[in-house]
Amino acid sequence: MSSPPLAPPAQPAQPDGPGRAAAQVSPPGSPTVIRASGVGKKFVAYHKRATSLKERFVRREAANGDDFWALRDIDVQIGRGQTVGLAGANGSGKSTLLKVLAGILRPTHGEVAVNGRIASLLELGAGFNGELSGRDNVYLNASLLGLSKREIDRLFDSIVDFSELRHKIDDEVKHYSSGQYVRLGFAVAVHVDPDILLVDEVLAVGDEAFQRKCLDKIAQFRSEGRTILFVTHSLDLIESMCDRILVLESGNMIFDGQPAVGTKLLRQRLGSLPVEGVAVPYDLAPVKPTAVTFSHSPGSPAQVQYDPGEQLTVSVELDLTDHAPPHVYLHVEIMGQGEIPIWMMETPAGGISPGPGLSVVDFVVPRLPELLGAFAVNVRVSDASTGQPVTARRFEDLFGVSGLQGAGLLRVDYEARLRR
């Protein structure tokens, strides 16, 4: 795929709202090999199609359809050697983004630039001709990916051995099972010596042994410093294999950062995190913490992704009845993985007096510490005059803090000394 040369990576932009995440730049010293800038992709959804040429002319309204945006304003930079997982619910735009990056689909607006040879396995049997044999399809598919006949001759036996389909290689591909399609397609893709490998969810079709073989090949590519992007619904796989995750929702990229943070955020959005009960009956409480939101400053647009050193505002919405204590005290805990309290924030010792109705209490953290992870919020309310508990609520809303260090919750300064 020929593409214009890439400029040096830009500095990361700050998220500008809940529906859009900032593009994360490549790690220092890692050249950018894929860059998407303001990419959107529109399709037209037809509710009623003309069934003949005559009907097309007679009933012109049959051709009318509604615009459907599969991608909206995607900004992303992928560095050389990164392994990136694309995740999201069905219909979030993952596969569409992969096809746009591969050059299979042209974006409606925005630009995509790629440096390097791409090998893609995006759809079951993509690029295969069902009437041709497996042997012929190896030559056809590999030539489409940029190999010469001499190169394919040299690699042919290795491709067939990897696919484990020597007994079927001269049969017509239309007689292959879905798993055999995947075997042959993946075997060709990984033998074209790609700089960039794009893989969709098709690996889920193969049997367990072949999936393991494919994952081992991807691990080999990682060790060789190649760039890999893959779509999967296996969040555990993303956590174990990826350096980075892009989370999409309704065509928007809502998170770009550490896999452990992104997968937890996605599980929370999908409702698959366990829900815990509150310490005091919530429905009967005269003071109810009804919502928690995260933003840069009080009243600014909500966002869920932050960098160390950034300002964070945690806003707790309260609903007070006429029977609420005149002064209430809030104790807010920021909870990390394993329900470990990371830090806590409190209102002044004398409490606050919000009065009946809805009120919002903003806790402003001027500078986030150097830590990584996804964090939830636990709010406890008590009567400031008596100290008696009123109610408590554990919110499942999460915010994430990401950074350049590869692992661990904290980054500490240290030096190594040799002692003899």
Automatic annotation (TrEMBL):
Belongs to the ABC transporter superfamily. PROSITE patterns: ABC_TRANSPORTER_2. Residues 1-12 have a biased composition (Pro residues). PANTHER family: TEICHOIC ACIDS EXPORT ATP-BINDING PROTEIN TAGH. GO terms for molecular function: ABC-type transporter activity; ATP binding; ATP hydrolysis activity. One of its GO terms (cellular component) is membrane. Residues 13-24 have a biased composition (Low complexity). Gene3D superfamilies: P-loop containing nucleotide triphosphate hydrolases. It comes from Parafrankia colletiae. InterPro entries: AAA+_ATPase, ABC_transporter-like_ATP-bd, ABC_transpr_TagH-like, Bact_Polysacc_Export_ATP-bd, P-loop_NTPase. Residues 53-275 form the ABC transporter domain. CDD domains: ABC_KpsT_Wzt. This is ABC transporter. Keywords: ATP-binding, Nucleotide-binding, Transport. It comes from the Bacteria. Residues 1-31 are annotated as: Disordered.
